[in-house]
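WARN no homologs supplied; continuing
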Amino acid sequence: MKVAAPPSLQIAMIAGLQAALAVLLALGTAHLSPWPELVGFPALGALAALFGRYASIKRRRRIVFICGILLTLGVLLPSLIAYAGAGRAMMVLVFALFAGASTIAVSHWSLGGPGAVIIVFAVGAALSPVDSLQTVAARTLATIWGAALAWLVCMLTDRWRSQDVSVPGAPSGRKPPFNHQLIAASRITAGAALAALVTHAAGWQYPAWAAIGAVAVMQGGHLHITLRSGRWSPPSCSSSSSRN
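OK structure emitted
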């Protein structure tokens, strides 16, 4: 397998700066708010700025918006399930199901890199016990605030990127067949569940971290699902296909 160079180093660097700015604003505003203990959740929402770096400006706004919703749901739904009294083993299984569902969502909407692992990371942060609906609401609103900052930062600064992102090697919008998406999601769900359950059975404290590691590794094995295919053509060589 041959790994191609990034389609545009400049665009990648600008996207990194956008994400860093969004996270910095999320951390700063949360720290200065009356709820500094929730500082991690706005930062999670701000990670939506990592997505869509090679998309057109209009399409990127849509991608960041969708990812903000997915990150928010990744905090809201597990928090509600924890509040309902689900045990630790049940929460591990919920986490694994979210990993598979996130894989399908990333593929269905062609959200691209960094893929489902970022959404799964948000789910992992929401697995801690919840004592009230006020806590659920506070977590959710904090995540929404971070996602809104990500969208706003990208909207205001996307002009720094090239107006035409159809550069050689930029990802194209081909979507894999749904049965391929389902197979990859099922494998990732099983892998995340197995890693987390083994960690839980061993008595270790953070089974979610094991599951996140499994998702990251298995996502790498299915980048044709989580990332779109690209083609790079060197000036004096024949075109060669590669997968980012």
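DSSP finds nine helices and two strands in the chain.
OK
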